[in-house]
Amino acid sequence: MKIIAKSLAKGLAIILPIVITIELIRWLLITVESWLAPVLELVLPAKWYWPGMAIAAFFLLCVVIGFSARWRSFDWLWQLPGRLLLKLPGTKQIYGMLQDLIDVMSGKSFSDGSVVMVKLPGTEIELIGIVTKKGGIEGDRMSSLMGEAQLAVFIPMAYNVGGYTIIVPQSCTKNIDMKPAEALQLVLSGGLGSSTPKEKG
Question: pTM to 2 decimals?
């Protein structure tokens, strides 16, 4: 019976991530197709439209928006709907949470070279974190709370989209040669990721 239970648990661990990933991708593709297909059918003759064209159009639109966002005026335009959602009650929390989730998971909010190992004073314990702010920056609210020799470090939590921001002396940190997105993936997976950090001498 124990072998069956262990085999079931192992099988679920292998199958469930695959099934959930496929279902999420399928849901996204179906949603995009159902939203954009009517628009394309309005502007294209019926014989020109084929299933999947809306998905291709969606990715093309994303490329165009991403490319044009390199210019400040276009970036401001594309950011406008998000700013409006952040001002509306109800949507503010939902949109803000999703935006923060995507930014954190992608490592977008962090700069390269900001991954550090934080040593807890008086212990041999070290935590992987990402430097978000340095002390001594004029006009910055977070930086104003810190000394010039201090760093604000985001410590992500395993199996949870969240973490803590701690302020520590720079002497308690050691740089790691790892991209922020890789560090987030490694920590969020509880160390089961395949990233291989290299300490900077």
Answer: 0.49
